[in-house]
Amino acid sequence: MRLLIVEDERRLAASLAGGLAAEGFAVEVVHDGREGLRRALDREYDLIILDIMLPGMNGYRVCAEVRATGDHTPILMLTAKDGEYDEAEGLDTGADDYLTKPFSYVVLLARVRALLRRHARGGGAPAIVLGDLTVDPASKRALRGDVEVELTAKEFAVLEHLAINAGQVVSKAQIMENVWDFAYDGDPNIVEVYVSALRRKLDAPFGRRSIITVRGAGYRLATDGGAVHGGAAAGGRG
Question: What sign results for the dihedral spanned by CA atoms 141, 147, 151, 155?
Answer without folding.
Answer: negative
